[in-house]
Write a structure and sequence with these properties.
Layout lengths: L1 H6 L3 E6 L3 E5 L1 H7 L3 H5 L12 H12 L4 E9 L5 E11 L4 E8 L1 H45 L1 E6 L4 E4 L1 H7 L3 H4 L14 H12 L4 E8 L5 E12 L5 E10 L1 H16 L3 E8 L4 E7 L1 H7 L11 H4 L3 H4 L1 H11 L3 E9 L4 E10 L5 E7 L1 H51 L6 H32 L7 E4 H18 L2 E7 L5 E4 L1 H17 L5 E11 L2 E8 L6 H17 L5 E7 H5 L1 H8 L17 E7 L2
Parallel strand pairs: 17-19
Antiparallel strand pairs: 1-2, 1-5, 3-4, 4-5, 6-7, 6-10, 8-9, 9-10, 11-12, 11-15, 13-14, 14-15, 16-18, 19-20, 20-22, 21-22
Length: 626
């Protein structure tokens, strides 16, 4: 019996119900690595894995309570610290307080079971993760479908072209309900816009498993139309044959209508419009659009441009520099205005100005207009101006020569007249009066000739100004002396109110005297019988003296006001820094605010000095600005 006990491959042991082995076979303690006495001298609970103590203690408690057959799996600690799984079958005898235990090493099985459990847990986690991913994908697909349904018109057909699905957008745009469309062919939406060959090409393309893309005009239920950009994708089975077709459409009706309006606008523009597509990586361009105005301006037909290189149709664009503008605009996207230049290529020649910009489609547009007529007119104006300048030079030369030629005999007349005037005793009173008239008229004519000479000098830019210190009072007295005979002849009284004795100004004495003589002469000439002319001089500030001439003449007529405005504006334009403003005003003009505004509308009021002298008087205002 002991021989069988020791030779048994299973673990066999005797023990008491107090938890101590009293005898074990060699198979048990040798596999655990202990000596027999090491294993028998202590309770077997000391060798059990801590995690198994509770279950093992519970089973031992059952044996102690009289249970005779017990089965338990637990782990025993080997001497090297490794644990072995052992499956025990225990038979107990409470009356003898002992048990017989037969066990077997199940460590490999337990490891396999644990590995299987770990694998199950890993699979469970992977399945859970994959499920979450699939749920997320389903949600994403749901969102994509929602976005697709919001934006696009979607339909699905079988291989025979029968509609099996339409989304809500399809129904909204077409006006048909889902029930009206399911089972129908897409021909129910045919607008008649496209020929039969158009639809044949679609079916041949998708039936061969290829994607078709294009723009289709469809019919609405209410008889209206809509344009859609369509992509039809065939779904293929494992044999590569289509089993259904999915069509996704985008409503482009507004864009299509805008394109039509754009084409109509371009076609009816007076400016030429050309659209180019880039080729050779933007080194050259081909025509893709050409409006009627462009045909007229360039005298090149649309059929001779579309699809052709711009350098072939208009070889002169390179020398013109326009091709470089095309390249630059295409590369940078920044619009450019190319100034007017003359295009020439041996066939045609015209002046043109271009505005070039880039479209979102990567094409460029050139808007141009013919400046040939404008350039012709400009040249005509230049020629006319040159002719006028030449004529003006000739006129000035003629005036200068004529003035000199006239002064020679006039000086002789004045000279002989003065000789006669000196010999008063030899002349009768009547002859003396005649000589006086001759001298007066001669001096007047000489003044006119001098004025003609001055005009010629002004136009020739050769009028010299000789500035010097001039006594205002002395100059005015000289002027009054010269005008006195004319005043006496017209029965006009000269009134001298000069209050600037000893005042000096920096001026050209001859020119200043000429101006004052003109004022006084006009005041006398256009005065009334027994009228008055008053000349006044007063110091305004340390830099300015004001000289005024007033008379009692009739004043201005309404028709003369416009002429006065023209004169004032002319002087303000020609002499913006130094100029004379000459204004003739009577009492009514000052009192009539409307007329005042009319005359002074282009002149600053604060720079105009004006005064009312007395009833029925007229002011002549001279303002010298410096």
């Amino acid at each position: 019996m002991d021989r069988i006990f020791n030779l048994s491959p299973d673990f066999v042991g005797y023990g008491n119900l107090d938890g101590v082995f009293t005898k074990v076979n060699k198979a048990l303690y040798s596999i655990l690595g202990y000596k027999e006495e090491e294993f028998l001298k202590q309770p077997f609970m000391n060798f059990i894995h801590p995690d198994d103590l509770a279950t093992t203690g519970a089973e031992l408690q059952k044996a102690q309570e009289g249970m005779t057959n017990i089965a338990i799996d637990n782990r025993y600690r080997c001497k090297d610290g490794v644990y072995k799984w052992i499956a025990w079958s225990v038979v107990s005898d409470l009356s003898k307080n002992e048990f017989l235990a037969v066990g077997r090493d199940i460590s490999d099985r337990k490891e396999a079971e644990l590995a299987l459990k770990d694998r199950e847990k890993t699979l469970e986690k992977q399945i859970e993760l994959r499920t979450c991913e699939l749920e997320e994908k389903v949600r994403e697909l749901g969102f994509q479908k929602l976005a697709l349904d919001e934006h696009s018109i979607v339909s699905v057909t079988d291989v025979n072209g029968k509609i099996t699905y339409v989304n809500q957008k399809f129904c909204e745009v077409s006006g048909f309900s889902e029930q009206e469309l399911i089972g129908q062919n897409h021909r129910v939406l045919s607008s008649g816009e496209h020929p039969e060959e158009f639809y044949t090409n679609i079916w041949e393309t998708i039936a061969n498993g290829k994607v078709w893309q294009g723009v289709i005009k469809n019919l609405k239920k209410n008889g209206g139309y809509y344009w859609s950009e369509v992509t039809i994708t065939p779904f293929l089975n494992d044999k590569g044959k289509p089993f259904q077709y999915v069509a996704i459409r985008t409503d482009v009706t507004e864009r299509h209508n805008s394109e039509i309006r754009y084409r109509e606008l371009c076609e009816n523009m007076s400016d030429g419009v050309a659209v180019y597509g880039a080729i050779d990586d933007g080194e050259d361009f081909k025509f893709v659009g050409y409006n009627r105005a462009a045909e007229i301006l360039t005298k090149v037909s649309r059929n001779d441009t579309l699809g052709k290189r711009v350098t072939d149709v208009f070889p002169g664009v390179e020398s013109l520099g326009l091709l470089e503008v095309f390249k630059r605009v295409w590369r940078t996207g920044k619009p450019e205005k190319y100034p007017s230049n003359e295009y020439q290529d041996g066939r045609i020649s015209f002046w043109v100005e271009n505005y070039v910009f880039k479209l979102p489609s990567d094409e460029i547009v050139a808007i141009f207009h013919d400046l040939s007529e404008l350039k012709k007119n400009e040249q005509a104006l230049i020629d006319s101006r040159n002719e006028a300048e030449e004529a003006n030079k000739s006129k000035s030369k003629f005036l200068s020569q004529m003035s000199h030629e006239l002064r020679t005999p006039l000086n002789a007349i004045l000279g002989f007249g003065q000789l006669f005037e000196l010999d008063k005793q030899a002349l009768s009173k009547n002859q003396q009066e005649n000589i006086k008239e001759i001298l007066l008229a001669g001096h007047h004519l000489l003044n006119l000739i001098n004025e003609v000479l001055d005009l010629a000098k002004i136009e020739a830019g050769k009028l010299d100004i000789h500035l010097e210190d001039v006594s205002v009072a002395n100059l005015i007295k000289q002027c009054l002396t010269l005008v006195a005979p004319q005043a006496e002849m017209h029965d006009v009284t000269l009134m001298d109110y000069v209050s600037s004795e000893g005042s000096m100004v920096r001026a050209d004495a001859t020119r200043l005297k000429q101006v004052l003589l003109n004022f006084l002469s006009n005041a006398v000439k256009y005065n009334r019988k027994q009228g008055r002319v008053r000349i006044n001089s007063e110091i305004i500030n340390s830099h300015r003296i004001r000289i005024s001439v007033a008379d009692t003449g009739k004043g201005l007529l309404d028709a003369d006001i416009e002429k006065l405005i023209i004169v004032c504006n002319y002087f303000k334009t020609v002499f913006p820094e130094r100029f004379f403003d000459i204004l003739y005003e009577n009492e009514d003009l000052f009192l009539d605010n409307k007329k005042n505004k009319k005359i002074f509308k282009n002149i600053d009021f604060k720079d105009i000095w004006k005064e009312k002298i007395s009833d029925n008087t007229k002011n002549i205002i001279w303002k010298y600005l410096q």
